[in-house]
Each structure stands twice: as C-alpha cells, then as structure tokens.
Design goal:
Structural class: alpha+beta
Oligomer: single chain
Number of strands: 4
Strand order of the largest sheet: 1-4
Length: 77
C-alpha cells in the first residue's frame, strides 16, 4: 500500500506543478505558506517572512512565510 500512496502523492504534485506552470514554464503563482526563509525571501514580490514572536497569551509563534496581500479585484457592478 505504501507504494500506491507514493504514486498518488507524485501524481498530485505533477498536477499541481502543471497548474502553476504556464506554456513557457514560468511560474504563474507562488504558494508562500510552508516556504523556508531563504525561499520566501527570494519571492519578495509575492511573499514576506514573518519573524517568530511570542503572543500576549505566552504562545510562541515560529517564523513563517506568508503571501503579501493583493489588490482586491472590482466586482464590475
């Protein structure tokens, strides 16, 4: 069963890659969530690194990459 699970993960990854890549192979979208700091910083146009911090309730939040907010599209109404 482990072999089938691996093949399924590879197939999902291939589908995701094909959706993100255009005809010329350029990346059309960047998923910032889960990126390591160096990768996040290389995608500064779309992502930003948030350093780790401690919340007021004492919970420690690890540093993480997040997508920069984009312009909201108009609804056309």
């Amino acid at each position: 069963m482990g072999k089938h699970r691996t093949h399924r993960h590879l197939a999902i990854a291939a589908i995701a890659a094909s959706l993100l890549l255009g005809a010329n192979g350029a990346v059309m979208a960047v998923e910032c969530k889960g990126m390591e700091k160096s990768a996040c910083e290389r995608n500064e146009a779309q992502c930003s690194w948030v350093d780790g911090y401690t919340r007021s309730d004492g919970v420690k939040v690890s540093g993480h990459c997040r997508k920069k907010p984009g312009k909201k599209s108009s609804s056309g109404s």
